[in-house]
Amino acid sequence: MLNTQLWISAVIIIYLCFVIITGIMIGRRSKKGSEGFYLGGRSMGPLVTAMSAEASDMSSWLLMGLPGLAYLSGVADASWTAIGLAIGTYLNFLFVAKRIRRYSIQLNAITIPSFISKRYGEKKPIIMCISSLIILVFFIPYVASGLAAIGKLFNSIFGWNYMVAVIVGAIVIISYTSVGGFSAVATMDLIQSIIMSLALVVITAFGIYQAGGMQTIIENSKELPGYLSFFQVHNSVTNSAEPYSILNIFSMIAWGLGYFGMPHILVRFMACRDEEGLKLSRRIACIWMIISMTVSVGIGLIGYSVSKAGKIPMLEGSNSETVIVKITQLLSSYGVIPAILAGMILAGILAATMSTADSQLLAASSAFSENMLQDVFGIKITSKQTMKIARFTVIFIAIIAVFLASDPNSSIFEIVSFAWAGFGATFGPVILFALFWKRSNSQGILAGLITGGTMVFVWKFVISQIGGIFGIYELLPAFICASIVIIIVSLATKAPEKEIIEQFELYTKK
User: Closest Cα to residue 10, out of 288, 247, 347?
Assistant: First the structure.
């Protein structure tokens, strides 16, 4: 057992060193200045754009949260969520990508808050301030969910102290993000997406073998009421099937709305080298996402059968999110080569976590150093000082996230779900109206931002407690409310200036 852990540890240490060294080397060769640090000089190719967007999107949720959900309740919850995300990814690339890239270049905007502010010709940076605060509020717990995944990983495998593991993970991510900036983050995301894919393939094949084959997995799943149904969900506590209503389906599909408002994904479009490359990016991203999420849900079902076969323990509650870790530990017990493969799979989980956390740290850093300090407070600083502040902000936000990740019993899926709703309901409607409705104005956009953010909290912690039809995922009602408010306030107030409308017509034409 000790020999196995040594091999796993060696693979993970080599991987972490590779990440740090490669990230720093890429960063040092990238373009200097704010645009280089935050957008990589707008030089990303189609493959990097696609895989960087998807890797930064999926996070540890793909390798821990989604399989854990399927393990506990079956295919309904996990699959409808995956379907919603696949639809959202396709529509985001199809409708938003080209327009926001073109528009942001013309406005010389390198962050989402600066794009929204400049799009509406804001005189006083109120929208800039509110949108930057929203990024900070929702990204910090999002980063914390990634660090929590790292903590659970090392605690499960090596018995490390949970908080020590969280801190180690934070240090690695900070090291290359703060030095390399966007170029390092985007390139590492591509590499990490490849590792994630390999991890999914290996764990699926081994899991099927350990469960006794696909026929056994299907038979075991059929024994659980509602486990294989898209319209029922399995209750593991009562061992019964519960109806999965149309309301639940819409609630899960609503996850797809979140894509329109994800700052760390939208900046990938802004950083793409050319518009035509986005077509290829869309195809690559959608194919990879559909395959990876299908396999991820399947691993949850496979994991249950491996547990029933007595090869790994039966998992309950948030511990179900460690199903891939448990199968990997089983793999490592078969000798040196399997132990090395196990180390690669665990490195894949780390890759999934880091590919999201690094992007989120960078987006949060830009919101503070670029938008809050310079645009909102008007602090005049040199380009060199901007870089120092940006790097300090990355470190500071990571420290806060470490404290928020201190609870080892927190659910990765629940944390990601809330943060996803926050961004989707605030920036989602704003970006869509900014790109597709020339009559929208700054007053409507400001009202929409505030309404979306407020409704996420109100619905999650107050209205949803009523239950019934009010138990729907908070993203959907908050998104709808924000959209309605944008339309009403925009129509009730003065139309945008002629210059702003002319810019819109020029920058959004095909």
Answer: 347
Sign for the CA dihedral angle at 425, 82, 463, 148 comes to negative
CB atoms within 10 A of CB 448: 29
Q: How far apart are the first and last CA of the chain?
A: 61
* Closest residue by Cα to residue 190 from 36, 45, 35: 45
Under a CB-based contact definition with an 8 Å cutoff, are residues 207 and 302 in contact? yes
Q: Give dist(CA 76, CA 297) in Å, integer.
A: 10
Neighbours of 249 (CB within 10 A): 16
Q: What span, in angstroms and rounded, lies between the C-alpha atoms of 41 and 182? A: 9
User: pLDDT digit string (tens) for 394-442?
Assistant: 788 788 888 877 777 666 667 777 888 888 999 999 999 999 999 999 9
Q: Which amino acid appears at position 214 of this protein?
A: M
pLDDT of 29 reads 63
User: Which residues make beta-bridge pairs with 232?
Assistant: 243
State the Cα–Cα distance between residues 40 and 190, nearest whole angstrom: 14
DSSP string, 294-315: HHHHHHHHHHHHHHHTTSS---
How many Cβ atoms are within 10 Å of 454's Cβ, its own excluded? Answer: 15
Q: Residue 37: pLDDT above 90? A: no
Q: What is the pTM of this model?
A: 0.82
Query: In this structure, what token pair is assigned to residue 365?
Result: 């850093």
**Long-range contacts of range 284-288, CB-CB < 8 Å, 24 or more positions apart?**
284/46, 284/47, 284/50, 284/51, 285/50, 285/51, 285/53, 285/54, 285/89, 285/93, 286/86, 286/89, 286/90, 286/93, 288/50, 288/51, 288/54, 288/193, 288/197
Q: In angstroms, what CA-CA distances link 51 with 191, 351, 472?
A: 9, 13, 31
In our burial notation (b when 16+ CB lie closer than 10 A, e otherwise), range 326-338 reads: bbbbbbbeeeeeb
DSSP lists the bridge partners of residue 242 as 233
Sequence-distant (6+) residues with CB within 8 A of 128 are 113, 114, 116, 117, 122, 371, 375, 376
- The DSSP letter of residue 369 is I
